[in-house]
Amino acid sequence: MAAARKRAGSRGRHAKGAMPSYGSRTDVGLLRDHNEDSLAVTPPLYAVADGMGGHAAGEVASEIAIQTLVANAPDAPDADDLTRAVVAANHAVIRAAAEGVGRKGMGTTMTAAMLDGKRLVVAQVGDSRAYLLHEGSLQRITRDHSLIADLLESGQITPEEARVHPQRSVITRALGSDPSTLPDIYEMNISAGDRLLLCSDGLSGMVDDSLLESTLDRVKDPQRCAAALVNEAITAGGYDNITAVVVDAPSNAEAIVKKQMRKGRIAAVCAAVAFVLLLAGAAFGAKSYLDHTAFLSEKDGSVVVYRGMPGEIAGVTFSTFDHDTGLAADDLEGLPANVRERLAEGIRVDSVADADALAQTWKDQIEQYKKDTAPAAEKLTEHDSSADGASETGAAHSDENRTADDSAKQGDDA
Ligand code: MN
């Protein structure tokens, strides 16, 4: 009797029909000497944290963040409550560093998901990721907070360049530094048979999306699937710590979704892409996300800023026009890559201020492009004189560069 009860309570795997099954694996990889990733599988909560800070401090940061998250997480998917748990994790890492646990400047990513029935809420800080496999096709849910993501979105580099970029590990948001840091929140309804993957960049950076997709589709058992994914990252070189959490949505969710759709409830968009995030800000309190997030688009020949998200879900849009940047869309033709093309779909950024900053970057680039394409002779002379100048100015310049590099590296570590 006691044994039976203990067994039933010991694992979420097959408790109550509605519980999802899941599997996870974390591995140090081939090049690192310790594993700074941490994870949690405590249904309905699943999370991956990738710590950083050097000298094992990353381990401390990710472990504190995960433990604090688990201790503060709500019982059911709720955006506000999950946000509060992530905020508590952030404060705990900051406090620990201040008290001499780990090291100053340690930090961690946090990708936390709560899945109950068809309801999925994901909280995101950093460059660990959440993906959803729906009917065999993979959809990335989260947006990385990384330098590379910014460069990609602004069209300054291609995905191929991103994969080998020297600064690909630089993240722009982490737990452990700023007490006011908030996670991005994604809310959606998923379908029966959908599969959720949470992973650190040691997986997504080593294994491309098409292989993630085929493995998630092929290996049915979630535990074996997590192991297979980690093995693929190791086979690809295992440059970083690798963590994968695979969660299968319970099979009875489909009926609920269908029922809701029959009732015409708008929230029951069934596709994997059903990125409801916000749809219902109204209903689920994700409204603040929509208020803050923004994107750049093209309107009447100008580059303009919208608040909210581009596109529409089930015929509903989630954006409002904010302002014109004063930049003509035609001028973007001078920029490398496909900025203008991507503008048509909307280029997402974190805030209206970020949208303006990106537009300003483009203006500067266009300005530079115009200069570069005009009188080339002048530029060459300038370049030559500083190259063989060996002067005091030259030395001062290189010192400055080193300092800039050093602080960039510290930022990288931090
Ligand atoms: Mn990593």
Blueprint (SSEs and pairs):
Layout: H1 2-10, E1 21-27, E2 37-42, E3 45-52, H2 57-72, H3 79-98, E4 107-108, E5 110-116, E6 119-125, E7 129-134, E8 137-140, H4 147-153, H5 159-164, E9 184-189, E10 195-199, H6 201-204, H7 209-218, H8 222-235, E11 242-248, H9 253-262, H10 281-284, H11 287-292, E12 294-299, E13 302-313, E14 316-328, H12 339-345, E15 347-349, H13 352-373, H14 376-387, H15 392-413
Helix pairs in contact: 2-3, 7-8
Bound molecules: manganese (II) ion.
What can you tell me about this protein's structure?
The protein is α+β, with helices and mostly antiparallel strands and 414 residues long. It is built from 15 helices and 15 strands. The chain has helices at residues 2-10, 57-72, 79-98, 147-153, 159-164, 201-204, 209-218, 222-235, 253-262, 281-284, 287-292, 339-345, 352-373, 376-387, 392-413; strands at residues 21-27, 37-42, 45-52, 107-108, 110-116, 119-125, 129-134, 137-140, 184-189, 195-199, 242-248, 294-299, 302-313, 316-328, 347-349. Helix 7 runs antiparallel to helix 8. Strands 2, 3, 4, 5, 6 and 9 form a six-stranded antiparallel β-sheet that branches. It has a five-stranded antiparallel β-sheet with strand order 1-11-10-7-8. It binds manganese (II) ion. Manganese (II) ion (MN) is lined by residues 50, 200-202, 240-241. Manganese (II) ion is lined by residues 50, 200-202, 240-241.
